[in-house]
Amino acid sequence: MKNTSEEYQLQVRGLEVGFNNKKNFTQILNGVSFNVQKGETLCIVGESGCGKSLTSLSIMGLLPESGGIRSGEIRFEGQDLTNQSMKEMSKIRGNEISMIFQEPMTSLNPVHTVGKQIAEAVRIHRNVTKKEAYERVVEMFELVGIPSPRERVHNYPHEMSGGMRQRVMIAMALACNPKLLIADEPTTALDVTIQAQILDLLNELKADLDMSIVMITHDLGVVSEMADQVLVMYAGEVIEYTDSKSLFENPKHPYTQGLIESIPKLQGKTEELPVIKGSVPNPDEMPSGCRFSTRCAFAKQECFVQSPEEVGTEDHPVRCWMYSGEWQQMTPFEGGESNDNSSSEAVDRQPIRG
Question: Could you report the per-residue pLDDT of 225-239, keeping only the tens digit for each?
């Protein structure tokens, strides 16, 4: 994207992350790069297993013990988070950068009241008394729309509905006025009415608090509602990156096209929704060339041999051979075991040019 580095609140450059096992290092994220400007929302979208949550955990410094960052930078307001000690990250995490996790019941302690849990987080990062911390909790409950906040602070997680627990998680994440909020599938477990309320709330809070958001989702409806910029990930790689309007009006990568075409349409009669056949490859079994080649309707012989570079425009980069100068000269695929999903079973669609 065109902006200078000084304008970005978060910059991720060439991030490579993986896990150590007894035999070797298995790489999951491969050269992930993106930017977040102050006050904007970036949505990271893709199927389960594409590396979305691992990207967010890398930013937060919450990778499991077996995981690690092999190379790359994560710069927050110019400071490289990959060089910070655990003590330094604990000062940033929950204070300047906060995260909302997918399922509140796995993030909230069932044996403590929700008020106590948030108050403790406030006291860790702010020099306040216990009473002042509780007043901050009440204030945050009011902000996120929890009714009777002074009574609700004494509730245990199991005494609240799913929607209320998610509001508690938002209140906890925002209690210290973070500059950046990471939301990992924050509405997945909620019904559509509550989903809409939570998304509206996040949009309102972003404007009121002058906050940036990185939202992890597989739901393109959420993307259309929330995103300024969209990062499409597949099998640990960024395959398309642009603004929300451009993505929906002119998706370039066959994977992005498939995701958008699989959205149910309100108009017209559709007997069967288009689907992308197959599944995201296992990290230990990545294709030699383009990681989407075994599921792609347009794959040519070279797609199975050599990984495409990022091409396209500065405002709309895409990782696909179709948009390279070599595409017309590449050898058409003639069938075989390596592409059993790409012809008869794959979605019947035409490449979108632009």
Answer: 999 999 999 999 999
Paired tokens of 155 = 């509730």
**Domain range summary for the chain, segments of one domain joined by +:** 7-96+178-250, 107-173, 275-349
Residue 103 has pLDDT above 90, yes or no: no
Number of separate helices (H) and strands (E) present in the chain: 11, 12
CA 345 to chain centre: 28
Q: Which fold has domain 7-96+178-250?
A: Rossmann fold (3.40.50)
pTM of the full predicted structure?
A: 0.88
Please list the residues that pair with 45 across neighbouring strands.
217, 232
SS3 state at 110: coil
The partner residues of 183 in beta bridges, in order of sequence, read 100, 215
Q: Please state the φ and ψ torsions of residue 18, each to the nearest 5 degrees.
A: -160, -170
**From its phi and psi, is residue 172 left (phi > 0), alpha (psi between -120 and 50) or beta?**
alpha
- 3-state SS track over 222-271: HHHHHCCEEEEEECCEEEEEEEHHHHHHCCCCHHHHHHHHCCCCCCCCCC
